[in-house]
Structure formats: C-alpha cells, structure tokens
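Question (not urgent): is this output format expected?
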Amino acid sequence: ATAQLVYELGSLLLHLFSKEEARALASGIVVDSARFASANEETFAAMFHLLHTAAISYESLLAETLSDPSFPERVMVLNGLKNIHYLSAGDYILALAKAPFTSSAMANAMVQLGADVGIGYYSHASTMYFSIRVSARAHSELKLDAMKIILPFAKSHEGNAGGHARAASISIPDYFSESIVEELFTRKLLALVRKKVGKAFLT
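Got this back:
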C-alpha cells in the first residue's frame, strides 16, 4: 500500500509526522488496505502510531475517509448484480459483471458476496476498463496475485495497469474481446487450483 510505504520511509528517515500528515496517511492506509482486508503486522503497527499522532479515533477517521455511495452508484451496482457471469475451479469462484463507471464497486461487491475473484468492467471512449478484486482466501491459499497477471498483458498490449495483489485495474484498447481479462484470470486460477489439489475442472 502506498500510504504504508510512505509511512515506513518517513520512519526510516526519522521524520516526525505532523497531525495533518498522520491523518492523511492513516486515511490512505484505510483505503489502500480495503479496511485491512489486505494487511500485515506492519500495517496495524503503522495505523496505531498514525492514529495516536493524529489524535483521532478510528471511527472518526472512517467517517472522514469513507463516504456512502450515491443513489445512482448504488442503482448501477445493483443492476450489474443481475447480470453476473461466474464459473468455478474446484471450490474457488470467479465472477464477472459489466458495470458502467462502477466497476470497482462491482468487483468489491462480488467478492463480498462470495467470489474469490471479482471482475467489474465497462467500455468508454475506445477503451475498456477492468477492476479486479481477489479474496483473502484466494490470495493466502493460492497466492493469486492480480498485478502479476495483468501487468505483463498491459505492457505488451498498449494498456495501463495499477494496484496490488488483491486490488488492481487495467485499461486496454476496446478492440480486444470483453472476455480477455476473464480468460487471463480463469487460466491462472485453474492452474493454481490444480497445483494445490491436483485435478480440477472449470464448471
């Protein structure tokens, strides 16, 4: 997470964080870690120090950092949930849904509902945008890393990618099939499941 890295670098340089800096970095860690769904011991240690320095409670920080989605955003996500396409490899589930301008929220929603990989996507102005989320289970048990899958593809196909192992996004020209990112993750998911349990098939 970027905010955590900034905190760790500042600490190495013996920087004394101001209240405002600590507050900003704490907010960044909340967002980057998806409320600590993707975190380690250092993340919690950093958060403890930053909250103390900023003199703010975690509840107050959440209220400042996270805003409720607007009515149109909620409607678009709910509409997208009507059209989820999913498959499974062993007992791991990949779900995909078209979600104009709410692909990130859609990917999050699918993982929260039980998918191990959630992919939300939409097309706009000759570009396709994909948001990918990976469950804690798939990341810890299979070592599934979203960035390792999409970054090489983006670099070799005029695309852009960013994020980390459990939350990433990619944009590519719209002359590719809408199913291209799903296919990338399906192949990798199946390979990892087979590595873990032996025989496995897509259903």
